[in-house]
Structures are given as structure tokens and as C-alpha cells.
Amino acid sequence: MFEKVLFPTDFSKYSQKVLECVKELPGVNEVVLLHVIGPADPLAKVWNPGGRIDESKANLTEQSKILSSRGLSVKTRTEAIMEGDISRVIQKVADEEESSVIVMGARGKGVVEGIFLGNVAKNVLRYGNTNILLMRYKILEGRSGPSLEQFCSHPFSRILCPTDLSKPAEEAIAFIKRTKGVGEILLQHVVYRGETWREIEAQTEETTRKLNVIRDELEEARIKVKIHTSVGNPAEEIISLAEKENVSLIAMSSHGTGWLKQLGVGSTTYDVAKIGDRPVLVIRARAECTT
């Protein structure tokens, strides 16, 4: 499922922690480490990134040793750009390397307190076409300063799979079903429309019936499953349940019902990835499933 991973790194402390998680992805056997160098001074008339390229290659070599020691095949790439969006370079490399997934930290260098998703990760999420895993960590305050702690040492142990019962959501659940090492799946549907409480109750009953069918199919594959039906704002309800159930990962389709074709990710998925506090796996919907 995650045979070839692209890991863009900025060598920050947060990025270093994410690197430690790459080895835990099911089926991973090859990792491409990527560092993108932009101009230190955007207004400079002459730009010579030579020294920074050498520094990047040295840092990538050190990071590659960590993965190589775990038995993984590692390739390193340094890309230098004078102008343009770093996220587009990341997607270009993902396409060239035929990566199964892009793994990124939700934060990086220069993060502003209160911003939950950095600009580069945000743009890869919004405009990319490769599956993306956004890793997050608890930030713990200690005597020696802030430290980072994983929500779970095994990110696929307890997964929340929100579904709007669309075809793309169905594919995302099937993707998780095929993933080795999944311990438990929590299926959630959020009812967000209804003129009366009677209408909402009817939708809830129908949704529960459909979730039970999906649960039975997953349990046939010997996966432990719980179902949840919520009422309210989809992104808020998903984030709330993830915290309440202390899930290790939220996995959802990039799109669902009523998505805009010109956007790379639907609004609910984007909001969950942007403001949630759990790792999020976004599974890209195939174009033929969204028509």
C-alpha cells in the first residue's frame, strides 16, 4: 500500500520526528528523501545555491542512514528553485518517482503559534494528486523546553474513517481494508442537513443501517469495527470524535458528495487536515469515481 514513500524534509525538529514514523508504514520498502531549496533572499539579483546544496546533501545523507539501518532502500534528491511554489516541486518529484504516498509533517520551520498546517503541506494537500499522510505530534512542555510525542507508536492501530457514503469514501475504506496491520476501524457518518428533527432521525436510521452493512464486510476480514452517527458540522464532528476516541489516525477520501472538480481536495477533508490535532491520511479519489 505504501511501497514507495516520498518524504519532503526541511531538517526541522518536527521533520526529524516524522522521519522516525516512515518505517512504521505498512509495506514500505523504498523512501525518497527530498529537500527543496528556495532563494534565501527573494529579491536577490544573483542566486548561487551551491553551498546550500552541499549542506542539503550532507543532511540528507545523515537522514538516509536512519532509514537504511531499518532495512529500507533510500534515494535522496535536492531540488533548487529560484521562484515558484515548493509544493509544486514536491508533487513533480512524486510523479517522477511514482510515489505511493507523500509523508509530511503538518508543521515545519518558522511555524506560527496557532497555525495548525504549514503553507507547504497545505498546498500539497489542496493541489496535489498523490496520497498524503500528514503527521502530527503532541507538543509537551517540559523543563528543558517543548518536546514532541507521537499520538501512537503505531499510526494504523486505531483508525477513524469518516464516510459520506459516496463512491470515493467507499474506495477509501476499501484502501484501509487492504492495508496490513490495521487494528480497529471507527466508521463515522455525519448528518448535516435536515428540515426537521424527524427528517434528521430518519437520515440517522438509514445511515446506521448502511454503516452496519459496511461493518459486516470489514468484520469478515477480521477487522474490529465500531460505528458512529453524528449530527452537526462534518469537520467539527470528525475532529471531536477523533479526540474522544483517542484514535491514532484519521483516514478519509480527498473528495465526497458535492465536490468541486477544480479543487484537489474537498472542504471537509481540508478542514479536518487543517485544524485537527491527529495525523490525517488523505486518499486521493479517482476521477471516474467522482462523476
UniProtKB/TrEMBL annotation:
It comes from the Archaea. Coiled coil: none annotated. Residues 1-134, 156-284 form the UspA domain. InterPro entries: Rossmann-like_a/b/a_fold, Universal_stress_UspA, UspA. Belongs to the universal stress protein A family. PANTHER family: STRESS RESPONSE PROTEIN NHAX, UNIVERSAL STRESS PROTEIN MJ0577. This is Universal stress protein.
